Predict the structure.
Amino acid sequence: MKKSIMFLALIVLGLAGANVAESASTAGLQIIHNAADPGLREVDIYVNGGLLLDNFSFRQATEFLDVPAGVPLTVELAPSYSSSSVEALDNYTVTLNEGVNYVAFASGVLKPGLFAPNPEGRKTSNNLYIKDRMTQKQRQPGNYDFVVFHGSTDAPAVDVIARGVGAIVKGAAYQDITDYIRVPVGSYVLDITPAGDNETVVASYAANLSALKYQVGVIFASGFLNPSANRNGEAFGLFVAYPNGTVIELPVAEKPQPQPARLQVIHNAADPAAAAVDIYVNDALLLDNFAFRAATPYIDVPSNTELRIGVAPGTSTSSAQALATFPVTLEPGKTYVVMASGVLNPAEFAVNPGGKNTGFNLYINAAGRESAPAGEVMLSAFHGATDAPTVDVRVVGLVDPLVPALAFGDFSGYLSVAPASYTLQITPAGVPGTVVASYAADLSGLGSGAAVVFASGFLALDQNKNGAAFGLFAALPNGTVIALPAPTLRKSAAALTGVEDGVVRVEGFSVQQNYPNPFNPVTRINFYLPGSEVVQMQVFDVAGRQVSSMQMGELSAGAHSFSFDASGLPSGRYFYRIQAGAYSATKSMVLMK
């Protein structure tokens, strides 16, 4: 070395000339080399033409030195091989106040055009950043005092979070130096986040302040976030400089794990080819031979990271055999219901009456519920029948629909109902008098619980590869799936319909599916009466408009059959309703000319 730093404090008073020698007033100065430009890895520092620091290394600090106060000091930065200040790369003039302690950070790059720009538009050219009113000793034992310097040229403005404590630095951008921050001596984890976004942790560092000899210091961000865009300079890190010139690097700590999301998966794809599927998440098998109309319980899954959900045949051996893969990213702490629904090849199945795409897909409700307030039940409805029109879900005894205008692929919001028994009626949207099907929903045992009620299967089996028949099901948070049964009705309960095994039944009254179906233009309908009744048949289009009516008069108990001629109607799906006294049943048929 050209001169030892040990001698610098002795000679620096003479660097400013005769006036300084006469006054002998001094300030305290600590210099920290934080210029990450590879061309400045080692530098010589001159003050008023005299060498102050020889071969001063990046991330090295001096102890607090006594330097002249009250007079201009010209600080010059030169290459480490320099022989005089004439070779200086840059210079800065400062005047320090007597008796005040300062820290000076040399930071930046020589040629900013060769480096990544600062995200906040701050100038990154090499400069000297000075903080006054520094201290060399802690005045309150048991506490640790420190300032923070943002010295990373390509890093954005950041917040510094002491994990479990809160934000200790807010909105610090490159060049910024905080005032002193005081915390109790102890061990901390410091999380670095973008300013104002404390959910996104860029990096984390362990700061064991209880083990420090000095209870005062300077924490400085140093290096580049992206070394490859900065001439392969040193990578980003956090460092602490103590008053005696010691510099230590804070070790990297594990980033905080985001709160997991909660997820329930329901298999509601009625395509016979998807009767059992394997579910992969990021290529790992999550569910093996997951059956149609099965559900998982709610489980914890990673959040804030992309999950590739692959659905493969039940015979698969890896995610490479997936029939479809869906990327999803879930938010921390949120609860999701994922419904697998649709068919693999829509061209092989009946079209949706509302023109909805029926291809296999994942439908996500991002506001799932696992429980309800005391004395309530939370319900969400999902329309998962590909060949069914838009419907209303009604409750017997209520005028307005419980769920209005639900189309294939739609989730309703959650509804709060009392824990009791209900009869649910499915009607075409806006047509309360046309009951397609009715179901008993006994919620009396679900107090404080929740469920997803989903329509499942096909209305017309012969047009859908003889897949499962239409029904209404409820998935509970523990993964239990319950088929809602047809209600048991008395004659006084007029105009209610039950569906069981594809045949409509009400205490012996039954209406069979028309045959053939689809038909052109004539089809036959068979039904059975448990007693003598006046019978009427009405036909409605998918919009609920009546397009035909037949008065059959009073018919005796037993089996009956009649033909329906649709010569005057266009092709499409229709609903036929047979009213027999207090009994009523509605089924669908397809006219295909």
